[in-house]
TrEMBL record:
It holds the Pfam family tRNA-synt_1b. Signal peptide: none annotated. The keyword Nucleotide-binding applies. CDD domains: TrpRS_core (cd00806). It comes from the Bacteria. Its EC number is 6.1.1.2. This is Tryptophan--tRNA ligase. The lineage of its organism: Bacteria, Pseudomonadati, Pseudomonadota, Betaproteobacteria, Burkholderiales. Keywords: Aminoacyl-tRNA synthetase, ATP-binding, Ligase, Nucleotide-binding, Protein biosynthesis. The keyword ATP-binding applies. The gene is trpS. GO terms for molecular function: tryptophan-tRNA ligase activity. It comes from Undibacterium umbellatum. SUPFAM superfamilies: Nucleotidylyl transferase (SSF52374).
Length: 339
C-alpha cells in the first residue's frame, strides 16, 4: 500500500506527544516503520509538546522533560538525525499562526463530532469542562501537517479522523485561495495492529500501567513478562491452552523471528503439555535481546544531552524554514501581506 517505495518526493510528517517514555506499543506501531521510512522518504518527526499541553497544562514540567526523553528514545531505536529531521513543535511559531487562521475554516460542531476527540474526552473525564485548546487540537494538527505539505502521515488507526479533518481544512483553504497551496495527505496505518498491554487490555498505555518501556532494565523486563496475561483456563501444564487473547503469544507474533519454532510452540501449547513459564521464558529472551542494544544506545546518548539538544535545535531550524515558507504563501493568499 506504500505509494512508491523509493520515493523521496513524498514527505512524511509524524510525531508524538512527549508525555512519557516510549514503549513497545510505540515500537511496533510507529518507531520500527520510521527507521525504515527514513531511507525511503524525506521524513520529519515532531515532538508535539504544544499539543501535549492541551491536556497537560497543569503539569508543563512533565511535557518539558519528556521532550528530551522521547528524543533519546528516537535515537536509541535508530532514528538517524542525518536521515530524519527531528524538531520541537513549540519552537515553530508559524504552526501556531496557521492554527489561528485555520480555526476559521472549521465549526465548533465539526470539532465536537471528531471521533478521536469524542473518545479522548471520555478517556480524560473532561465531561463538559473541555479546554478549548483540546477541542481545537485537530486544527493545530492540520497546521503541523500542512505546513510541511506532507503527503504521507504515519499514524495509528485512532488518528484517522485527524487526517480527514486536515484534508477538509486543506481543501477549504485551497478553494478559498483559488490555488492549490496546501497539499492533501494520506494516513499510513501500520499493518500490524495495536499491541495489547501486558495485562491483556486492548492498548499498551502508560496511564493503564501495562507497558514495557524501551528503556526498561533487564529486571523490569523480567518482571513485566512474568505478569503477562496468558490463558486463564490453562491451569495445569497438561491442559490444552488457548492462543486467542493470549498476550504472550501476541507479543511472540510481533517479535519472534523464528516463525517455525514459534508455530511448533503454539501447536504444543494448544495440544497441552506446555507450561506458561516456558512460553514466557522464550518471550523474555527475545525481549531482552531486542531491548539490550536499544537501552545501551539510549544510555550512551543520555551521557551527552547537550549534543541531543543541539541536534534538536538544528532539526527545528531546518523544519522552521519549511513551515515559514508555507505560512508566507498562506498569508499572501488571505490578504495578510501588507509590506
Ligand atoms: N496527535 C498525535 C498523537 O497523539 C501526535 C501528532 C501531533 C501528530 N501532530 C501530528 C502525528 C502531526 C502526525 C502528524 O499521536
Amino acid at each position: 500500500m506504500l505509494p512508491g517505495t523509493e520515493d523521496k518526493k513524498h514527505l512524511i510528517l509524524t510525531g508524538d506527544r512527549p508525555t512519557g517514555p516510549l514503549h513497545l506499543g510505540h515500537f511496533v506501531g510507529s518507531l520500527r516503520n520510521r527507521v525504515k521510512f527514513q531511507n525511503q522518504y524525506e521524513q520529519y518527526i515532531m515532538l508535539a509538546d504544544a499539543q501535549a499541553l492541551t491536556d497537560n497544562m497543569e503539569n508543563p514540567a512533565k511535557v518539558h522533560d519528556n521532550v528530551m526523553e522521547v528524543a533519546l528514545d528516537y535515537l536509541a531505536v535508530g532514528i538517524d538525525p542525518a536521515k530524519s529531521t527531528i524538531f520541537i513543535q513549540s519552537q515553530i511559531p508559524e504552526l501556531t499562526e496557521l492554527t489561528f487562521y485555520y480555526l476559521n475554516l472549521v465549526t465548533v460542531a465539526r470539532l465536537e463530532r471528531n471521533p478521536t476527540i469524542k473518545q479522548e474526552i471520555v478517556l480524560r473525564n473532561f465531561e463538559r469542562d473541555i479546554p478549548a485548546g483540546f477541542l481545537t487540537y485537530p486544527v493545530s494538527q492540520a497546521a503541523d501537517i500542512s505546513a510541511f505539505k506532507a503527503s504521507l502521515v504515519p499514524v495509528g488507526e485512532d488518528q484517522i479522523p485527524m487526517i480527514e479533518q486536515t484534508n477538509e481544512i486543506v481543501r477549504r483553504f485551497n478553494r478559498l485561495a483559488n490555488k492549490d497551496i496546501l497539499v492533501e495527505c494520506q494516513a499510513l496505518v501500520p499493518e500490524i495492529g495495536r499491541l495489547p498491554g501486558v495485562d491483556g487490555k486492548a492498548k499498551m498505555s502508560k496511564s493503564l500501567g501495562n507497558v514495557i518501556n524501551l528503556g526498561f532494565t533487564p529486571a523490569e523486563i523480567k518482571a513485566a513478562v512474568r505478569n503477562v496475561y496468558t490463558d486463564p483456563l490453562h491451569l495445569r501444564v497438561a491442559d490444552p491452552g488457548h492462543l486467542e487473547g493470549n498476550v504472550a503469544f501476541i507479543y511472540l507474533d510481533a517479535f519472534d523471528e523464528d516463525k517455525t519454532g514459534l508455530q511448533e510452540m503454539k501447536d504444543h501449547y494448544v495440544r497441552g503439555g506446555l507450561g506458561d513459564s516456558i512460553v514466557k521464558g522464550r518471550l523474555e529472551g527475545i525481549l531482552q535481546d531486542m531491548l539490550k542494544p536499544i537501552r545501551e544506545r539510549r544510555e550512551e546518548y543520555a551521557k551527552d544531552r547537550g549534543q541531543v539538544l543541539q541536534m534538536l535545535k538544528d532539526g527545528t531550524r531546518k523544519a522552521r524554514e519549511i513551515a515559514a515558507q508555507t505560512t508566507d504563501e498562506v498569508r499572501a493568499a488571505i490578504g495578510l501581506k501588507h509590506f
